[in-house]
Amino acid sequence: MKEKVSKNSMINLNLEFVDEAVDKQELAKIFNKGEKALEKLIELSREKAAGTGWFDLPINYDKEEFLRILELASQIRDEADVFLLIGIGGSYLGAKAFTDALVPDMGCERVRRHKQIPEIIFVGNNFHPRPLYDLLDHISDKSVYANVISKSGSTLETAIAFRIIRSYLEERYGDEANNRIIATTDLQDGALRDMANRKGYETFSIPGNVGGRFSVLTAVGLLPLAVAGINVDHVLQGALDMKLDFERKALESSIFKYAVVRNYLYQKGYEIEILTGFEPDLESFAEWWKQLFGESEGKEGKGIFPASLSYSRDLHSMGQYVQEGPRKLFETFIHVLEQRVDLVIPEDYEDIDGLNYLSGRSLAEVQDMALRGTSLAHKDGGVPNMRIEVPRLNAYYLGALVFFFETACALSAYINDVSPFTQDGVEAYKQNMFVLLDKPGTEDLKEELESRFHG
Ligand code: PA5
């Protein structure tokens, strides 16, 4: 196993538990498709084709907007007890991934106050009344800022939550409410842009050729991250270094290899990829990853199903299935090589629990052995697995991981001959819902739709 690496080593892909299973000819076919996918990505991003703007974000981000983000974040940190992030899908998952990974004490009042980080609450990512109902009570005696994020400006979950929160803030703060609402949306179009213009909100823009799930390195993610006290310079630097590493190594890069190997496994019948690891702080990151790959690849009857598990917790629930269930699974472990903190297991002279063989050893060491044991057992059980080795969990490496997966995702989709940047399938449920909710313009469809329900 690769040992801890020195400062600023880049992310590495360890394939030792895939290699044995590899059929060289099949792999070569996918490799060739990968080569073409790589050329296509580079060419399309050079042409600034639709959806490819994220590829250059680590270099070409809006510097003026970046300074405004830092300034506003500092003001919010001074003035807010609570920062509401109203958004769904790509408009919130990235920020949640980072804050859950890097601000593990978000729920701890004392630490938060000490660091001057407002409580960050994610709303508008479902229709359920309970979270909003509780929220209005929770924030009643707190200083509140709200960042509504929607590229289209018309997503119903976000728009409804925003209407309720806006009405609450306007009632509570009067005209001052407009200074506490920040809108992150398309540069020109959409209902949210119109409203922001009319009400005079501070606004940030989502570049036209950056889709929601690829937008965490725009104001969509950067403002909430800066409010959360995460060093956004480090995030962008990590993404940039990952990009440079990818461009330098190209077909030898870990990003390219990951895209090729996962598609090789897919062709071999491994239809489900489990992103996993022994890092509870990365559970929300896995949710971001699932959206990125699921929405980008699941099309035309194709696509690896992205799933996630959090070990060792889930070894005691789903571990049995992984070890012995249908052999359609492969795993991608995120292996963080150096923990931020550690604890040593104490000696107990009575040793009633029989654990003295572990005395003096650290939890990080136990965890590493658990990871090694698990990946070997799963490989032996017919679950090929690879390990993405990340030197440390910090803003820099999370930025690098974002670029790693975004690029691998685009390459994978091209390898599979689908467009990574569309999500037409998401419209189907919305259309039905709009008809059932009597949205103007859908009247003609109502009767036919209702006749299909028998309950
Ligand atoms: O990746 C995407 O484009 C989507 O998942 C969107 O992020 C999500 O649907 C939210 O859309 P919007 O930002 O327009 O409200």
Strand percentage: 5-15%
Unreliable spans: 1-7
Tell me the CATH superfamily of the largest domain: Glucose-6-phosphate isomerase like protein, domain 1
* Structural domains: how many: 2
**Continuous helix count:** 19
How would you describe this structure to a colleague?
This protein has two domains: 12-45 and 234-415, 3-Layer(aba) Sandwich (Rossmann fold); 56-232, Rossmann fold (3-Layer(aba) Sandwich). Helices cover 49% and strands 13% of the residues. It has 19 helices and ten strands. The protein has helices at 16-19, 24-46, 57-60, 63-79, 93-102, 109-114, 129-138, 156-173, 177-180, 191-199, 219-227, 232-249, 254-267, 283-297, 319-324, 363-380, 395-415, 427-436, 443-450; strands at 12-14, 82-86, 119-123, 144-150, 181-186, 202-206, 272-277, 305-308, 329-338, 385-392. Helix 14 (283-297) links the parallel strand 7 and strand 8. Helix 13 (254-267) packs across helix 17. The protein is globular. The chain starts with 11 loop residues before the first strand and ends in a 5-residue tail after the last helix.
